[in-house]
Every structure is written in C-alpha cells, then in structure tokens.
Write a structure and sequence with these properties.
The complex is a heterodimer. Chain A is mostly beta strands. Chain A contains three helices and 14 strands. Chain A is globular. Chain B has one domain. Chain B is mainly beta. Classes of the chains: A mainly beta, B mainly beta.
C-alpha cells in the first residue's frame, strides 16, 4: 500500500520514516515557490558528490569474486558540486550521485515496516535525464543516502545543480512480518529507542 | 545476534562509505560497499594501503563450524547473506 502525502507526514512525525534534512514545506503556502510533496511522493534533492566512472579500459567480470567494489571505487573521478557551479552531463554519459537527504526506514517491533522506491521526475525525464535504471528499492532497515544511477539519454547537455529536486520517493507499507531481514540490525528500534 | 566479521577495508566511492573485501568459508572472495557505521577499523585506509578491520553481521543460522551471516549491504557477488567459518567472527 502506497502512503499518501499525509501518511508520509505521519510516518515522519512517528519516526517510522526519517528523511534528513526533512523536505519542507509540507504544504505549499501562499509565498512558497515550491513544495516537495505531491499526492503520494516526496521529492529528493541532488547531493554534492558526483562520481564519474572511468572504466573504459576495464572489463568487469561478475564471476571473478572479490574485486568489483575496489575496481569501481578506484576508477571513479570525483566532482564536488557547489552552489552556482553545476556539472554538465553530456548526452549518453553515465555517473553516480547521491541524494542530499539521508533516508532511514527503521524496523520497529510491533509495527508494519515501511519500504520505499525512488523514481525519476517526469519534468526531468522529458529532457532525457534518467536517475535510476535498475535499483529503485529501499528496503526496510535501510539508513543512508540513496545512490542515483544517472544517465543523460537526451540529445542536449544537462546541467546538474547541487540541491536540485532530482528524484521522488514513494513510500509503501510492507504487509506482514519479515522472516529474515538482512538489514534488520541496522536500525532496529523498539518503541523505547534503539535496541 | 550481532557479531563482527573480519575483512579488508579500503576507500569507497562516496564519503562515509568504504569498499570492503572478505572471504567466505571456502576462501571465495566477496566485496561490497558499506557505511562507516557498520565497520570497525582504525587508521585511514587508502587504495595502496587497505586496513584490516571487521564488518557488522547478524548470524541467521549455524551448523558445526559454519555460520550463515547477513551483511549490512549486498555483496557484488553473492547477495546479502554469506556463509563463513566460525573463526572468522569476533
């Protein structure tokens, strides 16, 4: 079941969902230019770190264990976005970035856990910007920023600005108990606090 | 049950995360990116000088000298649950 914007606010208030910093305003006021909430989504912003893979000469072999994390980490060029200094993404180019916000989906005893999915925004998609292509799921127990797999599929260059709304989060309730959740130790809390 | 699995740690892609490399029960290697909060190490790992440390795991099953443990993030090679030897765990 997908959470409406009001249910997302409730989950934030009850700390069943933590988005840090919290997207504001919750409701668009007369003088607000922008509100990050839509009917059942909340916008997430682009963080300051961008990693451009430099793997042209590499072959990634998924059956060669133990080397992939190091290979990717060592062969990435870093760019730091600053205010008024966007990164220009050329057509057909791929990079990794992260959301400005940290997302936490704590598992609370006696409460149905929440999961989430990150999706693109139609306004960006129309310009050819893909912000994820295969890993949208945020599992119960997750805590951290979300990594964005960004590709420019359009024909124009795209300027990526620090803090621009770049993706949207859909929050959903997981029905039933989770048998063996690999992430459950990460943020398991009781109503009294962290276990 | 929360325990710590020995591993080798080097810099990750993003601030706050590290590349983690370790071995399963049969010496097959695994690797993943993990946040600092799930790692225990001292020093400042670099690519030419990775450090030895440990990664937080939960044990979900055990039999004789083998343990099935859950890692905080999925590995590139074998999903999030891997089998290790008991003596690899602290």
């Amino acid at each position: 079941m997908l959470l409406s914007n009001l249910e997302i606010h409730k989950a934030l208030d009850e700390k069943r969902l933590v988005i840090d910093p919290e997207p504001l305003p919750r409701v668009k006021g007369l003088r607000d230019k922008y509100c990050p909430y839509d009917s059942h989504t909340v916008d997430l912003k682009l963080g300051n770190e961008i990693k451009i893979p430099k793997l042209e000469a590499a072959t990634i072999d998924f059956s060669a264990p133990g080397s992939i994390a190091n290979l990717i980490a060592q062969n990435s060029e870093q760019q730091i976005l600053e205010e008024n200094r966007p990164y220009t993404l050329n057509p057909s180019k791929f990079l990794l970035a992260q959301t400005l916000e940290t997302i936490t989906l704590p598992i609370i005893k006696g409460s149905m856990p929440l999961a989430a999915r990150i999706e693109g925004k139609s306004s960006r998609a129309r310009c050819g910007l893909l912000v994820h292509f295969t890993a949208p799921t945020v599992h119960p127990g997750w805590s951290g920023p979300l990594t964005l797999e960004i590709i420019n599929l359009g024909q124009a260059k795209l300027n990526l600005h620090l803090g621009m709304p770049i993706a949207q989060l859909i929050v959903e309730q997981v029905y039933g108990e989770i048998a063996s959740n690999p992430s459950q130790f990460q943020n398991q809390i009781t109503p009294e606090g962290r276990a | 049950m929360e325990k710590w699995l020995e591993c080798t740690i080097s810099p990750g892609q993003f601030t706050g995360e590290f590349a983690v490399q370790g071995k399963m029960f049969d010496d097959t290697e695994f690797s993943l990116f993990a946040p600092k909060a799930d790692l225990n190490f001292s020093g400042n790992p670099s690519w030419d000088k990775p450090v030895q440390g440990s990664i937080r795991v939960t044990i979900s099953e055990q039999e004789d000298e083998l343990l099935l443990v859950n890692l905080p993030r999925p590995t590139f090679e074998n999903g999030q649950a891997i089998t290790v030897k008991k003596n690899q765990i602290k």
